[in-house]
Amino acid sequence: MSIGIGAFFLSILILTLLREIKGVSAWLKTHFPLLMQFIPTWSFFAPIPNMLDYHLYYRGVKKNGEMSAWQEWTYLPEKRPWFACVWNPSKRFSKGFLDIAHDLLRFSNQFDNPLHICSSLPYLHLLNFLSAFVQDTDLEKIQFTILTESRLQAPQIAFVSEVHPLRRNR
Predict the structure, then answer these.
(1) Span of 2-6, 36-40, 102-106, 126-130 with lowest mean pLDDT
(2) pTM (whole model) above 0.70
(3) Could you tell me if 142 and 134 are in contact, meaning their C-beta atoms sit under 8 angstroms apart?
(4) Residues near 103 by Cβ (< 8 Å), separated by ≥ 6?
């Protein structure tokens, strides 16, 4: 009995290791699709790791028509609590922004029509979030931009939105 259990776990280990080899993995998926659904994939890093930092900036148009200066929306507090290495709920905001920024940039590269981009879900999510986030009552319109930066490259503008009326919950 124990030899059978050992052989079972050894075969799972071998299949898991073989699954990491692209050519072998493709062959296994083709010939044993049902079995390969139960074999785990182990990837310590994402298949395409994030190589850039994303920054969200916004500015408003005041009631007199004057544009305000660009301000960065920051989602990380200046100082994190000691338990943030175990439980960090504010990390969800950074992950959410990263996903939305990726989606918006991918979508804006696929379509040239501003109407399609402005009606996309990532665009509307950012616009709705910033409309709720901005508390300045002098602003009546808002515009946002996404900047990318890495250790090897200076910040670059990746996307600039249209100017939209600020919708506030009253």
Answers:
(1) 36-40
(2) no
(3) yes
(4) 120, 121, 122
